[in-house]
Amino acid sequence: MLLFQKRFHEGIVSGAIDRTFRIWPTARVKAGARYRCHPIGVLEVDSIDRMQIREIGEDDAQKAGFSSRSELLEFLSQMAKQPLSETAELFLVRFHHGGDGDRVSVALETNLSNEEIRATEEKLVKLDQRSSYGPWTQETLALIEQYPRTAASKLAERAGRETKPFKADVVKLKKLGLTQSFEVGYEVSPRGRAFLEALRRKPR
User: What is the pTM of this model?
Assistant: First the structure.
C-alpha cells in the first residue's frame, strides 16, 4: 500500500502528481507492481530510484504535489523528524493512477475459502502462543474494528499496553492482510472483516 495525505488525492487521480519521495531504509515498492491507495483506487509503480536530496529539482517538487522545492524539503524534514542534508538519500517513486481497483480487490479478499479461514486462525494462534503477554490477536482486531483510524497510542492505552510493541503487533496483522494503515491509526481490511464475520458465524 502507498499512503498519501488527502490533499494529494485529487492530483494523483488527475495525473498532475506522478511521483513521490520516500525516506525508507530499503525500497518498499517494486516497479511494475500495483498498490492500493485508499480511498482513490490503485497506483501502478513505473519506477523506483535511489537518489540524494540535492538532485531534486523544482519540477520534481511540483509533480510531487508541492508548490516549490523548499516546501517539499520542509515536508520531508517533518516526516524524518530531523533536518535533512543535501546529501541525504531517499527514494524517488514514479507512478500513475491505475483506476478504481478497490472493488475488484475487495471482492477477492472477502471471498475467503474455509481453508483460508482455518490457515489464518492457525497463524493467529501461533502469534498468541509466541507472545510473552498472552493472547492479543483477536482483541487487537476487535479494538481496531471498534475504533477505526484512532491513534496507535490511544488504542494501546485501551489495551493496557505500551505503544511501540502494540504497533509492532499490528504490523504482524497487516502482513496477514487483516488490517490496513492510514495517516492516523488503522482499519480492519476487507479480508479482515470477512475473517471476523466467519469467526462469528462459527458454532460455539
Answer: 0.53
